[in-house]
Amino acid sequence: MQWFLMRLKLFDWWLMASSLLLMLMGLLVLWSMSVGASAQGGDSIAQTRFFHQSLYAVAGIAIIVVGAALLDMRTIEHGSIPVFIITVLLLGAVLVSGSVVRGTKGWFVWQSLNLQPVEFAKVGFILFFAALLKRWARRLKELRALMLTATAMMVVGGLVLLQPDFGSFFIFLAVWVAMVLTIGLKRSHVVTMLLLTVVLSVVAWQLFAPYQRDRLLVFLNPNIDPLGRGYQLRQAMIAVGSGQWLGKGLGAGSQNQLQFLPERQTDFLFAVIAEEMGFIGAGLVIVLWAVVLLRLLYWSSVVQDDFALFALVGLAILLFVEISVVIGMNVGLFPITGLSLPLLSYGGSSFIATAMALMIAQSIIIEAKRSGWVRKYQ
Questions:
Q1: Does position 39 have pLDDT exceeding 60, yes or no?
Q2: Distance between CA 233 and CA 11 in Å, rounded?
Q3: What's the whole-model pTM score?
Q4: Is 374 within 8 Å of 302 (Cβ atoms)?
Q5: Residue 139 half-sphere exposure, CB side, CA atoms within 13 Å?
Q6: Which residue in 340, 336, 337 sits closest to 350, CA to CA?
Q7: DSSP 243-291
Q8: Do 229 and 323 meet the contact criterion of CB atoms below 8 Å apart?
Q9: What is the pLDDT confidence band of residue 257, given thresholds at 50, 70 and 90?
Q10: For the chain, first and last CA: distance in Å?
Q11: CB 190 within 8 A of CB 183
């Protein structure tokens, strides 16, 4: 117990506190949906979602605290390849025996329990990539080494495209590009990466379902079909704009409570926050995520271990891209992709996967402090 408490003291509590506040804000918004549902006669689905998300929050906190205190960073590093292989196998298995949810065959469904392997594959991919870069970072100027990393990305990305899940595919592609560029490449290799990105984008377009192509067309022109294909985006922008500075109050947002806003508990939760908590609430979400990302980048700049550096950078990139895309699609800056806002949107797979990412970050931070990788920490 004393050893556990000692490691607990080495947590980055700025990172932990920001994460907890984000979880709390997500629960508040889901609670507001359940309150509004009760006032309208009791929508048991909204109330059940709040109950489930509360359980996910408890499990997520336990994963971060207990996992970071018990797991050694070297254990995480050594397990990165097996974890990556398992996630790839799960992505393959879900194509064979998975269930279709919202047009994507990317879920394992057992009664009321749903598991989305791609959320865990994102974390597994970053750990594998960090371990790979630790060994190959200085050789990435060789085209062979660059193509090795590209092959790993295409294996995962190809399986995700077959679901098809363009949003998650974009996440994998963005993480790969950003992590490779942090190493530094020859100009010719950058051109190769751009060409590969164009080819993958063309392939992705061919694999798109009709509704996914419609999302891109609506993004380019939201008024193309305001009551059909453009309905989601228009309702989200109305919700965001109507919140003004202080919002309409929890449980009082018309777009949310009257359910004009589709997928309000997942894709468009940020629009609900903006409507009911206003610019202040939406701004607080952005500030809290900024604290999380800045702490990850701070520790990546001071650790003296390559795996720790690449893992922290990768996790920061993953969270930044997901947050930017989700907030962007809520205000019309990005096409609708079907992604969830980490730690806030309803969903066990996304929530637990994000908790695992934060657990890994805290484990690295603990190891950095305990082992003296950094001369001074705060």
A1: no
A2: 40
A3: 0.89
A4: yes
A5: 10
A6: 340
A7: TTTT-S-TT--HHHHTT-STTTTTTTHHHHHHHHHHHHHHHHHHHHHHH
A8: no
A9: confident
A10: 24
A11: no
DSSP element (H, E) containing 99: strand 99-101
Edge-to-edge strands, sheet with 113-115 = 99-101, 104-110, 113-115
- Residue 313: phi and psi, rounded to 5, are -65, -45
Q: What is the DSSP letter of 43?
A: -
Token pair of 303, please?
Answer: 């650790």
Tell me the C-alpha distance between 26 and 23, whole Å. Answer: 5
Please enumerate in sequence order all residues whose Cβ is within 8 A of that of 340, keeping only pairs 6 or more positions apart, or say none.
266, 267, 269, 326, 346, 347, 350
**pLDDT tens, position by position, 179-206:** 887 776 667 767 777 777 777 777 766 6
- Among residues 256, 158, 162, the alpha carbon closest in space to that of 207 is found at 162
CA distances, 334 to each of 157, 219, 239, 347 (Å): 20, 7, 17, 22
Q: Which two tokens stand for residue 167?
A: 């949003």
Structure tokens at 347: 């969903």
Q: What does the block give as tokens for 208? A: 């798109």
CA-to-CA distance for 219 and 212, rounded, in angstroms?
Answer: 11
Give the per-residue SS3 of 168-209.
HHHHHHHHHHHHHHHHCCCHHHHHHHHHHHHHHHHHHHHHCC
